[in-house]
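Try this one yourself first.
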């Protein structure tokens, strides 16, 4: 007796699916539309969107042959590099979740963060292979520097992989786990979905007018939302990403002069060296939509100096790993001016209200806790209700 079609094969099911896109599908559409456009500049050279997509397909096949299926976690312990970005995109295709490990953590904290997510596989760079081995976790490991390229080289042809079709992935599926600070105990793993990453890209476009022409410099650690969110956003939008292995003021200034940029992320402590080089050399930016972050923690005169040199407004940000740039990053400070106020403005795609301990809205003028809702919000803490 023939089986009844599943809901997903009905007309209603197909319509439902047609309204849902993933991070990988948006990246793939850019690779098809602009295969010769620059996607990544990294320490080893440059890759076009077509070349990057081919490598992502090969890596997705490698992960599938390891038995990894939708919802499985892969941990990565590595500095910023091309392979880190490729892993996130391959995971987006296969429905996997990448747990981005903070290499600054003490051994006990790192062990907690890895075991928390029960990964089926760990990717590690040579730089952090020894600290990982010292944890004695008894997990399958791929050493990026020793094995990665050989695994890609022996993977099936990208055209063959693509012809076989993509695995089923839903926008509400988790894509990355980014760890919050351990101020209330050990770090918590914030699960961020495809939906949230797509929404975070949209907030950038709406609030900062960032387009496919505006690249991103990924120098802040990719285990942090400041780099992962914006890197994925740029690659979904068709913009170039300049991957830098940690803070390097010289390389950042060089990129500012060579590329149109969207948000130039510079956090407190990283601004002064950039300002010094630009002031000394008279660097002329090719074009920056917004610079800086966390204005509350930066001397007001330094805000004016950086924004003046960048010829771009300073981003008066107030967000979180759990929410992205929202809820309060909708305001920018005029370039070259010492700000008179650091008041925040509501970001797009979110709603907020102040509530009391019972969750009820407080009257105007009364203090309360910020409650946030919107498409950028994360999916919860992993294994921590």
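Now uncover the answer:
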């Amino acid at each position: 007796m023939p089986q009844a079609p599943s809901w997903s094969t009905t007309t209603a099911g197909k319509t439902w699916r047609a309204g849902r896109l993933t991070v990988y599908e948006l990246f793939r559409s850019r690779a098809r539309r602009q295969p010769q456009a620059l996607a990544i500049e990294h320490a080893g050279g440059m890759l076009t969107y077509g070349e990057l997509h081919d490598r992502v397909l090969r890596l997705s096949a490698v992960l599938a042959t390891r038995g990894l299926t939708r919802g499985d976690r892969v941990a990565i312990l590595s500095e910023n590099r091309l392979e880190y970005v490729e892993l996130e995109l391959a995971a987006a295709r296969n429905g996997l979740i990448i747990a981005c490990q903070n290499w600054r953590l003490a051994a006990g904290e790192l062990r907690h963060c890895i075991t928390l997510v029960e990964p089926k596989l760990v990717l590690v760079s040579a730089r952090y292979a020894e600290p990982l081995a010292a944890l004695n976790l008894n997990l399958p490991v791929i050493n990026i520097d020793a094995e990665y390229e050989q695994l890609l080289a022996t993977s099936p042809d990208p055209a063959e992989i693509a012809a076989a079709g993509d695995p089923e992935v839903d926008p509400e599926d988790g894509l990355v786990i980014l760890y919050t600070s351990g101020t209330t105990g050990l770090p918590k793993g914030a699960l961020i979905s495809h939906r949230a990453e797509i929404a975070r890209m949209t907030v950038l476009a709406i609030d900062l007018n960032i387009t496919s022409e505006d690249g991103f410099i990924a120098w802040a650690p990719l285990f942090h939302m400041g780099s992962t969110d914006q890197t994925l956003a740029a690659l979904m939008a068709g913009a170039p990403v300049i991957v830098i292995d940690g803070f390097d003021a010289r390389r950042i200034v060089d990129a500012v002069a060579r590329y149109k940029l969207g948000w130039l992320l510079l956090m407190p402590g990283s601004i002064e060296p950039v300002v010094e080089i630009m002031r000394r050399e008279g660097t002329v930016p090719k074009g920056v939509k917004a610079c800086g972050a966390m204005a509350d923690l930066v001397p007001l005169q330094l805000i004016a100096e950086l924004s003046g040199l960048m010829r771009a407004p300073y981003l008066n940000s107030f967000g979180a790993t759990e929410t992205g740039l929202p809820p309060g990053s909708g305001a920018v400070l005029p370039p070259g001016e010492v700000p008179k106020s650091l008041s925040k403005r509501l970001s797009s795609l979110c709603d907020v209200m102040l509530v009391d301990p019972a969750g009820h809205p407080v009257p105007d003028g009364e203090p309360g806790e910020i409650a946030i809702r919107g498409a950028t919000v994360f999916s919860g803490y992993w294994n921590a209700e």
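Discussion: The first helix runs from residue 11 to 18. The chain has two domains: 25-228, 247-374.
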